[in-house]
Amino acid sequence: MLVASMGDSSLILFILATFVILSFYGGGFATIPAYLKDIFGSMQVGAIHGRLLTAWSAAGIAGALIINTVLENRREAGASGLGMYQLSLFIMVGVLAVGFIANALMRPVDSKYHATGEEVAELSAPIQAADSSGVMLETRANENGTLHRMAAAVLTGIVVVGLAYGLFKTIVKSLALFN
Asked: What is the C-alpha to C-alpha distance for residues 59 and 73, in angstroms, rounded to an integer?
């Protein structure tokens, strides 16, 4: 909010506020597994962490798209300097506020639903057996391998198409600037 509202009045305040914002990234990222364990229990951390990283990536793409769309609209409206970015920053403040409220409303899953030590041992026994013989692990990999390869190919295709589109639009706009 400080970066969005202070305008271009103080370069020093802008740099300090931006530095503080950027310094949170690593700390927040490092605490996610512990937070997930506290909320969902230790058995679910791996699965939920993967989903969280996917959501984080999607938010990174969506955020960039929002900022670029607003930036282009502001540019077409004749804005320049901070005026081009201020609306985007206020939108991101709103998104962060919604995220903060959603996070504040989170409550841990009741511990009665957490896996007990016996359940963990029972669930990990087939995996341990597979490690010693290799047969079960190979069978499980063959059953899931085709589905995983297909999903990876589809997702890779989506990413490649998105990157190609972005590259194409960048090249077209760059050529338009030079003509």
From this structure: 21
